[in-house]
Amino acid sequence: MLQATNKAGDGRLQVVNEDQQFTDQLSNYLGKWGMIDKGFAYDVVAVFGSQSTGKSTLLNRLFGTSFQEMNESKRQQTTKGIWMCPSAYSSTLVMDVEGTDGRERGEDQDFQRKSALFSLASTEVLIVNLWEHQIGLYQGANMALLKTVFEVNLGLFGGGGDEANKAKPKEKTLVLFVIRDHVGATPMENLTATLTQDMDKLWDGLSKPEHLAEAALHDYFDLSFAALPHKILMPEKFESAVVELRKRFTDRSREDYVFQPTYHKRIPADGISFYMEGIWQQVLTNKDLDLPTQQELLAQFRCDEIAAGVIEAFSSSSKPVRKPVETGLVIQHLGAMMNDWLHIALGKFDKDASRYHTGVYQRKRSDLLTTLHASLLPLYLGQLKNLHKQISAQYVKDLTAGLKEPNYDFAKVVLTAHVKARADFQAGAKATKVDETSWTDEQELASLEEDLKVIADRLRADETKKMVNAIERTVRRHLVEPVEIAMSQPKPEMWDVILETYAKVLSEAEESYLSKAQGYNCSEEENDVALMSLRARTWLVLRRKLEEQASDATMRNTLRTAFEDRFRYDDQGLPRVWKPDDDIETAFKKAKDETLNLLPLFADIKPTNPKLAPSIPTPEPSFDADADPVSFDASTALNLLSPAKLVSLETRFKRDADAAYVEAKRSMVSSVAQ
Ligand code: GDP
Ligand code: MG
Question: Which of 273, 447, 471, 543 has its CA 20 to 30 A from that of 604?
Fold first, then answer.
């Protein structure tokens, strides 16, 4: 079967055979001819015209091909079908149509119509080959056939009935009239004008599909003209005219170069076989010969290809910002940039792909948009993350600056900075968003606000700690001196005085904290913790001061002072000068006993008014209670001096007192001696 399809060896291929079968060897041959990898860099030309008008001869001369020519002397029959052969001069596929000699007219017309339709639909340039003397004979068989072919072509390939396709004609085809046996008697312009008129008339007379009623000839075809001298009568002139004409097929720099990009069917070379076979099948089954399937397949192929190109360009334009975003930089105007890339990419896609089947094009466009959006999403999310970081850092700075202001209100400083951070983030996120996406900054915003809260909380904890420290200093100032005074001049109500002061200082401290804490928006729990620590610290200040006052040296001093106050000063507070008849013994004993009576006061913290008894606070959580178990243990916290300590203090005091007595005696003796 394959052999039957190809009867001519490798030089040319019978694309469609006499049984109207399409070859399965086309790709194979395109490979052999070195065309399969050409992509779009190839062209297709076909010929149309009556039998035996020198078409094959023309093609062979023009392109160096090897189509069968009718030999004048032998008049041997050529092989019917559509033939293809590569040009020897450029990457051009040349198609020749061989019909029968008109003997079996009905059958031949059918084949001619089909092959003409096929040629028209698959080539960039259709050579209409005709004798000079055929021109103007509008009723000639040529024109009738051309009319039919145009008509079916318009119905077939003229564009769908849908709105989008209506406005966009398919690729144009160049119709190149080659006037054979041009004698030169009639100027070229006249022939050209006549042919153009004929074509216009033909076009007007077409029965067009309703939606293409307004379609103009020039929406679909460009017309061009060439003339060749008589081959037999003027062989040299014919040859040189052919060489000249060939340039129009090979020399891109010429203005009349025929393979203009607008004519290209944009089928990649490796898709030619598939595409042409599809067209042939459509032509064969032509009733009204709609080509949606063929068009859709092609559209899918092309749209994918165009999209791939667009995506590649898109990726390379977005590449320079990906690294910086990854490394944590906030890119200015990122949203505008991304919108620009999208705009450019879609513009490119629209320009190239919108010519294809509308449904497919639109579907592929939305696929493309999805892909592009997906590739931008990481940039958006990255930018949000970076914004988050940047704004958190700025928030810390804003807070720090706000807390340096005199008389700042912590809650207000935090609120102002928070509102600003939130607004900055939202503005940044908005400026990064890409149009027509449902991207949202909600999650990142929530996470940012959580972080801001943590930062503010930490800062507030620092601030309250500072505040508690400051209050503790005030406590020390207000507590230490009264305690020292009370302890150094012991009286029975000593503890009442001390504990009253303690209660007052503590309540002042608590009040001071609570009034200051209002500005910090502290939670109740935080307040509780702060107050607890304040109570513990105030208690420790008291307790340590009491211990200091109860130390051996201080106690000895306190007792001696108490004794001396009684023994060496009189009731008016004047120093006594002992005289020989003074009763030193009684005075001494009284002062000593009174002083000794004071000593037990120091045993325990014990006011005469039981209501003043202090409650022992719990130590601060951060406080190492083991380091000072006495102060916070209910069983020991109110004990100051142990019985043993009291005994040793008493002994020492007695010795001090005795010494004072001896000294007093001696001073009296010496005053008598004077
Ligand atoms: P086709 O059937 O259109 O392909 O015609 P062919 O190329 O097979 O040629 C048909 C006949 O026309 C042959 O006998 C050719 O020698 C002859 N022929 C070819 N070119 C010319 C030409 O330019 N002028 C004339 N008058 N005859 C030609
Ligand atoms: Mg021929």
Answer: 471
With the most atoms of ligand 1 within 8 angstroms of its CB, the residue from 52, 58, 230 to mutate is: 52
Does an H or E element contain 174, and which? strand 173-180
And the tokens for 418? 């928070």
**What would the two tokens of residue 222 be?**
């460009």
Q: Does ligand 1 lie within 6 Å of residue 57's CB atom?
A: yes
**Residue-level pLDDT at 160:** 54
Which pLDDT tens digit goes with each residue over 297-339? Answer: 678 888 888 999 999 999 999 999 999 999 999 999 999 999 9
Residue of the CA atom closest to atom 16 of ligand 1: 72
Mean pLDDT value across residues 484-492: 94
Q: Is 180 in the pocket of ligand 1 (CB under 6 A)?
A: yes
| Ligand 1 contact, 70 CB (< 6 A) | yes
Residues with Cβ within 8 Å of 239's Cβ and at least 6 positions away in sequence, in order, are: 61
- Report the helix count and the strand count for the chain, using DSSP H and E: 21, 7
Backbone angles phi, psi at 78, to 5 degrees: -80, 165
Instruction: Look at the alpha carbons of 320, 321, 326, 331 in this order and tell me if their dihedral is positive or negative.
Output: positive
pLDDT tens for 159-214 read 654 444 444 455 789 999 999 999 888 899 999 999 999 999 889 888 787 888 88
Q: Which ligand is nearest to the CA of 48?
A: 1
CB of 53 closer than 6 angstroms to any ligand 1 atom: yes
Task: Write out the residues surrounding ion ligand 2, Cβ under 5 A.
Answer: 55-56
> Which amino acid, one-letter code, is at 178?
V
Each as own residue / partner, the long-range contacts of residues 387-390 (CB below 8 Å, 24 or more positions apart, any chain) are 387/330, 387/424, 387/425, 387/428, 387/429, 387/432, 387/444, 388/425, 388/444, 388/447, 388/448, 388/451, 389/328, 390/330
Residue type present at position 106 = G
**Ligand 2: distance of its center to the CA of 47 in Å?**
10
Check pocket membership of 182 for ligand 1, CB cut-off 6 A.
no
Ligand nearest to the CA of 229: 1
d(CA 634, CA 555): 24
- pLDDT tier at 293, thresholds 50, 70, 90: low
Q: Would you say residue 448 has pLDDT above 90?
A: yes
Write down the domain spans for the chain.
2-290, 297-440, 552-605+640-674
Question: 286 or 512, which is more confident?
Answer: 512
* CA gap 604, 315 in Å, rounded: 84
Let me know how long the chain is.
674
User: What ipTM does this complex have?
Assistant: 0.99
Handedness of CA 444, 454, 423, 329 (dihedral sign): negative
CB contact at 8 A, 310 and 348: yes
CATH topology of domain 2-290: Rossmann fold (3.40.50)
